[in-house]
């Protein structure tokens, strides 16, 4: 059987990674909502 202390440590690592991913996803969604990012392709001068 696994050591409870080690399982708590692994759980803490996974919880920290999950929280980091959720924060980054929230920041990206907020950026899209505020208009900092756009989904449209940017136009460029193809003749150059």
Number of distinct beta strands: 0
* Mean pLDDT across all amino acids: 86
How helix-rich are the residues, as a percent range?
A: 55-70%
Tally of contiguous helical segments:
1
Q: Structural class from helices and strands? A: mainly alpha
How much beta, percentage-wise? under 5%
Parts with pLDDT < 50 across at least 5 consecutive residues: none
Report, as a whole number of angstroms, the end-to-end distance: 67 Å
The geometry reads as: rod-shaped
- Largest sheet, strands/sense/barrel: none
Number of domains: 1
Order of helices and strands: H
Q: Please tell me how large the radius of gyration is.
A: 20 Å
Topology of this structure?
Layout: H1 4-34
Structure in a nutshell:
This protein has 1 helix and no strands.
Characterise the protein shown here.
- Helix content is 65%, strand content 0%.
- The chain has one helix spanning 4-34.
- The longest helix has 31 residues, at 4-34.
- The chain starts with a helix and ends in a 14-residue tail after the last helix.
- The relative contact order is 0.08.
Descriptive keywords:
single chain, 48 residues, mainly alpha, 65% helix, rod-shaped, transmembrane, transmembrane helix
